[in-house]
Amino acid sequence: MIDAGPRSMADRGPIAILCGAGSLPFAVADAARQDGRRVVLIGLRGFADAGRISRYPHHWVALAQFGHLFRLLKRENCRELAFIGSLVRPTFSQLRLDLATLRLLPRIARLFRGGDSHILNGVIAIVEEQGVHVIGAHEIAPDILVPDGPLGRREPDGKDRSDIAYGLQFLRAIGPFDVGQGVVVADNRIVCVEAAEGTDHMLARLAGVRHSGDVRFAAGTGVLVKAPKPGQDRRIDLPSIGPKTIENARAAGLNGIAVVAGSAVIAEPKEVMEAADRAKLFVVGVGDEAPR
User: What is the per-residue pLDDT for 92?
Assistant: First the structure.
């Protein structure tokens, strides 16, 4: 039998993107279209940007409407699905259950007894049992992965690199607890840890306590470090940064941002670099074993 080689993106049929908040779903959709692939966006109500999603073939679903989602995928002949964009994890009582979801109720209830990776891995399993392959945003648009090295004019100095290594070490240590993907380090001191609230709210919290004087460290110090959890399924919920991350890091008085190169995504690199230069912050992609 002759091996025809890997199929092109266009030959793989249409792809569905389940859209949360932010600009990343649209950057990935545009990349897929440029490769000649048909894209169908499925917006999560209350999260996806209604104005932007209307520019694409699209549908809407509420959280946990598995039956509706599966019917849409079948109607659109989508055998591949990507989960892209941010959302706030709901409480169990906030889910809008349809009949298919009701049948899965005991299983879904168990998923809520754990961290975000636990519930996301469970959702992936439910989707793939329907014959739909879940793929990562970076598999569709490899250019969204943060490259190694600085993004912008500024670079971390020796003190910053020590803080970055300390932050990566900390994130590896808390990985088994399925907590968050971000930490702020200043002078080798952990000053703020991302938990269920997400990076933006963590930085807002830090800005508040710095303003009140409850947390103090010298001006020109402090690094936001982001890394995936050890063993995390890279198809979903990779750490991400965007212009808003720069804005929030500046408001928190930080000196820069470091993310693991090749394991974090960036939706608007040009805007991020310009924003970082204006804010006089460094943004850098590093190895996950950055030396101290």
Answer: 63
The whole-angstrom separation of Cα 68 and Cα 224 is 39
pTM of the model: 0.84
Alpha carbon separation from 84 to 16, 58, 134, 165 (Å, rounded): 10, 14, 11, 28
For the chain, the structural domain boundaries read 12-140, 145-286
> What does CATH list as the number for 12-140?
3.40.50.20
What is the pLDDT at residue 273? 96
For position 90, what pLDDT does the model report? 66
Contact (CB, 8 A) for 50 and 25? no
Give 7's DSSP letter: P
DSSP 52-103: HHTTSSEEEE-TT-HHHHHHHHHHTT--EEEEESB-PPPPGGG----HHHHH
Burial of 1 (0-12, 13-18, 19+ CB in 10 A): exposed
Work out the average pLDDT over 148-153.
Answer: 96
**How far is 275 from 111, CA to CA, in rounded Å?**
38
**Beta-bridge mates of residue 58:** 41
Instruction: Report helix, strand or coil for 241.
Output: strand
Q: Worst-scoring range by mean pLDDT, 70-79, 85-94, 255-264?
A: 85-94
Residues 145-286, CATH architecture: 3-Layer(aba) Sandwich (3.40)
